[in-house]
Amino acid sequence: MEKLKNYICGQWMEGTGNGIPLYNAVNGEQVAVSDTEGINFEQALDFGRTVGYRNLSSMTFYDRGEMLKKVALYLLERKKKYYELSYKTGATHVDSWVDIEGGFGTFFTYSGLAKRMLPNTPFWVDGDTQKISANGTHLGTHILTPSEGVSIQINAYNFPVWGMLEKLSTSLLAGVPSIVKPSPFGSYLTNAVFQDMIESGLLPEGALQLVCGEPGNILDYVQDGDSVLFTGSATTGRKLKSLPSVAGNAVRFNMEADSLNCSILGLDAKPGTPEFDLFIKEVRNEMTTKAGQKCTAIRRIIVPEHLVGDVQSALSKALDQTKIGNPLSRETRMGSLVGKQQYDEVLRKIDILKAETELVYDGKHELVDADYEKGAFMSPKLFLNDKPFEKNISHDVEAFGPVSTLMPYKDAEEAAALAKRGKGSLVGSIISYDNEFVAETSWKMASQHGRVFVLNRDNAKESTGHGSPLPTLMHGGPGRAGGGEEMGGLNGLHFFLQKTAIQGSPDILTAITKIYQQGAEKKYSDKHPFQKYFEEVEVGDSLETAGRTVTDADIVNFSNVSWDHFYAHTDATSLTGTIFDKTVAHGYFILSAAAGLFVSGKKGPVIANYGLENCSFFKPVYAGDTITVYLTAKEKINRGVKGRNIPSGVVKWLVEVVNQREEVVCVATILTLVAKQSPFIDLKVKNIEKILNGLTENTQPKWGKMSPQKMIEHLEHGVMVSLGEPEADKCFTPEEQLEKWQDSLYNHRKMPKDFPAPFLAEDEKLLELRHKNLEAAKQSFMDTLKRYSIYYRENPQAEHMNFVFGKLNKEMWELMHKKHFTHHFEQFGLI
C-alpha cells in the first residue's frame, strides 16, 4: 500500500515506520498509509525559520498576494482528481465543493485583498502617524513585519483542503513559512493538493513543509517567534498550549476547538411563515452537510416552547427525505463519517446524551449503493432536552456527527441565556422577521459567540448559511471554542505579524515607511509630477503652484454652479455670532481651485481622479485672500488590473493649501490612477524609421526563420489589415475565447516567441515576398504606416477584423501594433 510522503526541508520523504493505515470511509478499503517516523522535526523547523523565512519575508505583500492567486488558479485546473479523492472521505459532491473550491476561494479572496489594500513593500504601515512633539520634528507610527519564525498548523479531519488553505492564506500572505500537519484521516487528499502546490513552482523554497501523519515531538522544538495554529478538541488544544516549549517561549497559539453552536427560531416564526420553513431547512442542512462533521454545525436547536412539537415533526420529515449513501451516487445528499474510529466516538457521545435527554428521531435510512457494515454511515439523530436550564449535558457534550438537540425557551431573555450556555461558540444563528427580537437577542448572546448569523425572508436567497465561515469575516469564538481568531479579512494577518513602534524625524519616517510625512524634505524638479509614469513617481516628488487670489465673483459663481447657497457664502447679514467675519469661500471651491492650480492640462500618464481622503479645512478663505498649493507624492500603491484597463497604480498626493500668510487653510489626500510605463514602442513614424535604419539583409533573427524582408512585409500586411486593405473575412480564435484574447491586448505581457499565427499556414500568399528588396519593403511599410496614422484620425469610429483578435477598434489596433512591432523588432535585435 502506498505511503504518503512528507515534504521536509525541500525534499519528499517516506516515514521509516509501519505508519497508520487510512481507509475509504464509504467501503472500508485501505487507501494509503501515513507515516512520519524518522523525520528530524528540529531540522524541519530550522529550515523554515532560515530558508523559508528569508525567501518569503523578502517578498512584498503585493507579490505574495499575486502568488496566492497563481497557486489557486493552478490548483483549480487540477480539481477533478481532488474530487475523486474527496469522495473516499465520505464527502458528497456539495461537501467536496465547499472543502476544495471553498479552499481555493479563500486564496482568491486574500489575493484580492492584498492587491487592493496592502503595500508593495515587505512591511505594512499600521495606522496614522502620531505627532509627538510641539513643532512636528519628532513623529511616531507603527509598522508590521513578518514574525521571525515558522508556523505549525495542525488541522482537523473534516476539511482536508479548506482547513489547510484557510490557514495558509493568512500565513503565506503575512510572509511566514508554515509546516502543515493534517489529521491522518483524509490526509491523502491534503497530500494530493499539497503536492501540486509544490510542483507548481510558484512558492519560494522553504515556504511550506508537510507532515502527513503523527506529529511526534515537533512542538518540543518551537521557540520565540514561532506560532502554532490548532483545530481540534478543546482538551487536546489545552494540553498543547500548556506545553513548556509553547508556554515558556511565548509561542503564539491560536485554537479553534469544540463548539456547541445553536440556532434560535424567533417567537414570530410560526408554521406557515417563510422563517419557519427557512429554519427547518437550515437545521437539516447543518445536521447533514459533511454528515454533521463541521465545527460550525448546529448542535442546539432553540425554539419557542409552544412550537417544539411543530419543529420536531417538520424536521423529522425533512430528515426522512435526506438520502444517505455512496457520495458518487446522484441521489445521495449525505455521505458517511470520515471513518470507523470517528463513528465509534460519536456513538460514545450519543450514549452520554441519552443519559439525560430523549432521542426523538433516529431515522433508519436505507443506504444508496452502500453498506452500513463496510462504511462509516450514521443516520441523523435528534434529541429533546425538555428542561434545558436544568439538564446540562446538551450544553456540555458535542457529538461530532449528524446529531442535534431540540430545546424550548419562553422569551428573548431565555433564548439568549440558552445560547450562552454553550460556554463559547463559533457561531449562533437567529431566524426571525421580528427586528426587535433579533436586536435584543443578538447583542445579549454576542459575548459568547464568534459570529451571529441572522436569516429571514429578505436575505435568504443570497445567504451563505449558518455554517459557512467567510474569508472576510472572523472565524473563531471565545471560551470552549478556543478563543482563536482566523481569517477576518486583513485582521487575520495580525497573528503572524510583529507590531513595532517607529519614532523619528519626518525625513526618517518617510525613509522607513515609504510614505511621505508632513515636514519632510520635498523634491522639486522641472518635470510636472503628473507627467511621470507610475514607476517614475517617487515619494516626496513635489510641486509648488502659482498663487490665485479669490474674488467675490468666485464665491458667487461657485454658489450658482454648485447650488450650495449656505448662508455663510451668500448672506453677509447673517454672520453675527458665527466664526466668519464676512462671506467665506466654499471649502469645496478651495479644493477645486487647488486642483486647478496643480493639475497638468497636457495629456500624460495620469488617467483619472481615483478618490479623496482625509480632507480638512482649517482656516476660512475670504475674497482677497491668495492661495498657493504644495502637491507632494505621499504614497504609491501597486494595483492589480484585469480586463480592458490600462496597467496602472494609485498614487496618493498630499495637497497642502496655504494663504498669503503661509497659514494652512486646507489639507487633503487625493488619489490618482497613474499609467505604468509600457514596455512596447510607440508608433510615431520617425521613431519607427530610426529603428529600421539598423535592419539590413544580414541581420539574423534571435528566434524563428523569418528573413528581415519577410518580417517587414509581415508587419506591413498587419497594418494594411487594420486599414481594411484587404478586409479580413475570418477570425481564427474560437468565439468563447475571443474576449480573453482581446483583453490581453491591454496588459503589458509580451507576445510569446513561439506563437503560431493560425492564418499563416493556410495562406501561402502571405509567405511570398512582394517587394524587390529590403529597402523597397521598408519604404512601402513606412508609407503604409503614415496612412495608418492619418486613417484613424479621420475615421475614429472605424473597426476592422483581425485574424486572431477579432474585430478591433482604433484603441485596440494601436495596442496590437505596439505589441506586434515590439515582438518582431526584438526578434531581430533592433530594440
TrEMBL record:
Residues 12-499 form the Aldehyde dehydrogenase domain. Keywords: Hydrolase, Oxidoreductase. CDD domains: ALDH_MaoC-N. Residues 460-484 are annotated as: Disordered. InterPro entries: Ald_DH/histidinol_DH, Ald_DH_C, Ald_DH_N, Aldehyde_DH_dom, HotDog_dom_sf, MaoC-like_dom, PaaN-DH. The keyword Oxidoreductase applies. Residues 539-639 form the MaoC-like domain. One of its GO terms (molecular function) is hydrolase activity. Pfam families: Aldedh, MaoC_dehydratas. Signal peptide: none annotated. It comes from the Bacteria. This is Oxepin-CoA hydrolase/3-oxo-5,6-dehydrosuberyl-CoA semialdehyde dehydrogenase. It comes from Chryseobacterium defluvii. The lineage of its organism: Bacteria, Pseudomonadati, Bacteroidota, Flavobacteriia, Flavobacteriales.
